[in-house]
Amino acid sequence: MGGRTTVDFDNWPYPAWVAHRGAGKLAPENTLAAFRLGARHGYRMFECDVKLSADGVPFLLHDDQLDRTTDGTGIAGDRLWSELSGLDAGRWHGPAFAGEPIPRFEDVAHWALDSGLLLDVEIKPSPGAEVETGRAVASACAALWQDEAVPPLLTSFKAGALEAARDSVAGLPRGLLVGELWEGWLETAQRLGCVGIVLKHTLVGPALVRQVHAARMRVGVYTPNDVRDVARVRGAGVDMLVTDAVDVHRPG
Asked: What architecture (CATH level 2) is domain 17-243?
């Protein structure tokens, strides 16, 4: 990890605006085509979903199943990378994207690094694969960003995946994703040594932002798209907005 500065509440290097799954809904999500389009809209940081193939290759896909966003079927994590790499992950979005492949995480990382851009890496394990996915994603990030000043932010809804990532590479910043305010959410983020909490935007108001900031963690939200929702969470004092509407909201 070299001489990298530690990311914490006082040293927060990430921009306020993050493009969800590359370019929101403007391109096939979690593909290189989407990230390139998001960058053309001026975004400097991109959220992506990473899981493991059956033979341990980290790749980008949101769903457990292949059916929605590829021409494959079944559980993605049960397939070898040699099978996954041949699937079409673009045609479902429109004929202009036909033939767009599922990318390896390594390929997206190299694109971001070569472009001087940042990643919010959601660890998105297949069912039952939280520990191995957390370990593999953290190890991949440590190797790929070993000479970089600003590391990726690792996020997950799965505490077990974040714990495994922490135990594998303690120096990478982590954020807990929270879709509802379940008992112990804040304490869990603290126990995991998170630098931030990324909440569903409808949960967030000024009091909650103050609560998380008082615990010395930053506040992100997903996925406010409407102008009124964006204005509301920005007024509440959030630090990061993950949005689909990359053609509406111009990052400053």
From this structure: Alpha-Beta Barrel (3.20)
